[in-house]
Write a structure and sequence with these properties.
Blueprint: H1 2-11, E1 21-29, E2 32-40, E3 47-49, E4 54-56, H2 63-67, E5 71-72, H3 78-81, E6 98-99, E7 102-106, H4 119-124, E8 139-141, E9 148-150, H5 177-180, E10 182-184, E11 198-201, H6 218-241, E12 255-257, H7 259-262, E13 273-274, E14 279-280, H8 288-291, H9 293-296, E15 303-304, E16 307-311, E17 315-317, E18 327-329, E19 334-337, E20 349-351, H10 363-366, H11 369-389, E21 425-426
Length: 449
């Protein structure tokens, strides 16, 4: 779908798409980014690009250290953010788990993979949050209660997919792991179109939290991602050979990887799924005090004069490299302030992903894909608006007196109030802060209760 959307612009020469590259260097002039160098991950040549505006939409905020843009990582302290769930001291290396996902189907025959090199380690690994249970199992903590719960696993159950209630306030939906992440239901299609369901494995058992990949040497980053891939393969091998079945037997040898779905010969995702990124020291930082239902209650989330989008998800933090278990608590429907996309100092770099001005805690609800996509679209609209009007991103924000009908045109049609003083937030509790921590390496770990 995305390629179809881009096709007219690529064929007209209006967009150049460079694939399978990552940024390796950047140049700056004062507070402006002047170029970014991209290196191919498949052996192609380096390319250096220059633009009036650069959007960092990488999974981990890779442009921030390359451009010298101030940022934070990990868990901030309560002293820095005023958040009730933050620890007393910052924990810069306390980062949420990342995962290497994969898709399986259940088919006739034996599709057991070769035993992964690290299988013996992962088979015996029992994290503290699992209360003595092994990571490779059907048992994991309930993210909301932290009680250990045993899940079931029944491939191709022959259920009615349209009867599934997706309201997670009633049911988290993870009792049968096959249904929890099912991405294609055979019974929604004509008989014979699909041989079976397709199930995405993105479960607690493949969460990798032995180490993070932010601001570590490249060889360490690559080794940890490789180890996470071994964890995912080990989970698959365990399911194929040792997992308890409902009929009392063990193993599901019919589970088969789908490299064609993942676009990768080994059947695993092409890249790791990172739940937490480097985060800019932003003009506006959203804290727990702005979105937590326990703090906000019936007032709802903090409202912003410069809102560029909305989102809704629980504050959902997975186990972390600091040894923390889940934090999964209610939030309220929230807004995305434009100020969260703007670094305090760098003038032409925009945050376009999980690298916006949130904290370790509020990243837990702003990291979800619909919110990420909203952020990316807003960043693209802002760059186009700035090019069309000659205004800087900061001067494109509305003044405190702007009403929804007088905001800049790229928010609302027919507006004319951009370029005045910075907006204020409304209905903000006394403990909430608009500024980000001054310590660029600060991080905090969540309390288990």
């Amino acid at each position: 779908m995305l390629e179809e959307m881009l096709a007219p612009y690529r064929s007209a020469g209006r967009i150049t798409l460079l694939e399978r590259v990552r940024p390796t260097a950047a140049t700056t002039d004062g507070d402006r980014v002047t170029s970014v160098t991209l290196a191919s991950v498949v052996g192609g040549p380096e390319v250096t690009v220059s633009a009036a505006y650069t959007i960092d939409a990488t999974e981990t905020g890779e442009l921030l250290p390359l451009t010298g843009t101030e940022y934070v990582t990990g868990f901030e302290s309560a002293r820095d953010t005023g958040e009730p769930s933050a620890p007393d001291e910052a924990q810069p290396d306390n980062v949420q788990a990342f995962s290497v996902c994969f898709v399986v189907e259940h088919a006739d025959g034996d599709h057991t993979i070769d035993k992964p090199d690290r299988y013996d380690f992962w088979r015996s690994y029992a994290p503290g949050a699992w209360g003595g249970e092994r990571l490779l199992s059907w048992t994991a903590p309930n993210p909301r209660t932290l009680a250990l719960e045993r899940r079931s696993f029944t491939p191709n159950p022959g259920d009615d997919p349209l009867a599934v209630d997706a309201d997670q306030s009633k049911n988290a939906g993870d009792e049968n792991l096959w249904l929890f992440r099912r991405i294609a239901a055979r019974d929604l299609h004509e008989p014979g179109f699909y041989a079976g369901d397709l199930c995405l494995v993105n479960w607690p058992s493949i969460d990798y939290f032995l180490g993070h990949v932010l601001d570590v040497p490249r060889d360490v980053e690559e080794a940890r991602i490789a180890d996470a891939r071994q964890l995912s393969l080990s989970m698959l091998y365990w399911m194929q050979t040792e997992a308890p079945r409902p009929d009392g037997g063990t193993g599901f040898p019919g589970l088969r990887l789908r490299p064609d779905v993942m676009g990768n010969p080994d059947g695993l995702a092409q890249a790791a799924y990172h739940r937490e990124s480097r985060r800019i020291q932003a003009v506006t930082t959203v804290t727990e005090n702005d979105v937590s239902y326990a703090v906000r209650g019936a007032r709802g989330a903090t409202r912003y004069d410069d809102s560029v989008g909305v989102g809704m998800y629980r504050i959902d933090l997975h186990p972390s490299t600091g040894g923390d278990t889940y934090i999964d608590v209610p939030s309220t429907p929230f807004e995305i302030p434009l100020g969260a996309l703007l670094p305090r100092r760098t003038t032409n770099l925009l945050a376009g992903n999980k690298n916006i001005g949130t904290t370790h805690i509020t990243n837990g609800c702003y990291r979800l894909h619909p919110v990420e996509w909203n952020v990316g679209e807003a960043a693209g609209h802002l760059a186009a608006h700035c090019l069309a009007t000659g205004r800087t991103p900061t001067r494109s924000r509305p003044s405190p007196t702007c009403s929804p009908t007088t905001r800049p045109s790229w928010w609302r049609p027919g507006s004319s109030c951009a370029g005045r003083t910075a907006p204020t937030r409304t209905d903000t509790p006394a403990t909430s802060r608009t500024d980000t921590p001054s310590d660029t390496s600060s991080r905090i770990s969540p309390k288990e209760n």
